[in-house]
Amino acid sequence: MKLIEVLQKRRSVRRYQQKPIPKEDLEALLFALQRAPTDATAQLYSAVRVTDKDLRRWLSEKTGNPHVLEAAEFFLFLGDLYRVRRFLEKAGYPPGRFPKTGLHFALIDASLSAAFLALTAESLGYGICFIGGVLNAYPEITEVLALPEGVFPAVGLTVGVPAEDGPPRPRLPRGLVVHENRYRAPEEKELEEGLQAMAPIARGDWARLLARYFAQGGAMEAREAPYGKTLTRQGLDPDLPKEAGAYSLGALIEEALTEWRSVLFRPKEAWVEKEDKAQRGEGRPGEALLQALTGGGFPGL
């Protein structure tokens, strides 16, 4: 099937027949995921093919997606900065520290790899569905899969023989998505046209669906803190040591102020103080504050 034909027909599939994917087709999928483009040749991604039924069932429950268990195959794509560090160390080069840049490129690499596998599967007649619900249990998935520092879940992907059919889902008018030379903010009329164009996907009210995820109190806010804390534990916060396990340096300061009267930063040290006690830590701000809070630094004089 030509790629344009795949794109014209494609849709997410959430119901699958209980049929395995033949070995030759599976080999084509695994080949495809490694043919995605990558920045600086580094291939900052890994893919976990989950074949353990108990683990699939657990992931299905944690992500809130029954088709994770029902599909013939489930892959979890990971951003992977750990492997490139190991290559550098083996060759005698000291690894750099670039957590935000690394997160950026690793997410791109993992997403491209997943997309190449997905399009190849659809060209072979299979159905696919991306699983963003891995963020619903981000810390637990990271722990259960024993992901080392620098590795983090990006997205899940189900693949199998479809047990449902239907038309492609709508998309926003192109003028809202494709810009020329500079970004153009949408006009009110265009926003209304966009809401109407997407209404069929949500029983006539796309804004209500968006609000469920992106408005105050929505799913994205609920995912934010566990996501940030897990990235810190995976060594991907530029301001905090992974042992902090906090969402951000600001969040760690807020936590400190629930117990301590004041937090003071000086060059290469931090202090926490209250009426009858003071503790000090040394190092970069996040490291110094963590030392002060845990008593692993130096008692105040």
Structure description:
Residues 297-301 have low confidence and may be disordered. The radius of gyration is 23 Å and the shape is globular. The protein has a 4-stranded antiparallel beta sheet, sandwiched between helices. Strands 5-6-7-8 form a 4-stranded antiparallel beta sheet. It is 44% helix and 16% strand. The protein folds into 2 domains: 3-160, NADH Oxidase; 239-299, no CATH class. With 301 residues, the chain is an alpha+beta fold. Helix 2 runs antiparallel to helix 6 (99-123). A hairpin with a 2-residue loop joins strand 5 and strand 6 (269-274). The N and C termini lie far apart (75 Å).
Low-pLDDT segments, ≥5 res: 297-301
Main beta sheet:
4 strands, antiparallel
Q: Can you give the helix content as a percent range?
A: 40-55%
Average pLDDT level: 96
User: What is the chain-wise order of helices and strands?
Assistant: HHEHHEHHEHEHHHHHEEEHE
The secondary-structure class comes to alpha+beta
What overall geometry do the principal axes of the alpha carbons give?
Answer: globular
Distance between the termini: 75 Å
| Strands ordered across the widest β-sheet | 1-2-4-3
Report the portion of residues in β strands.
15-25%
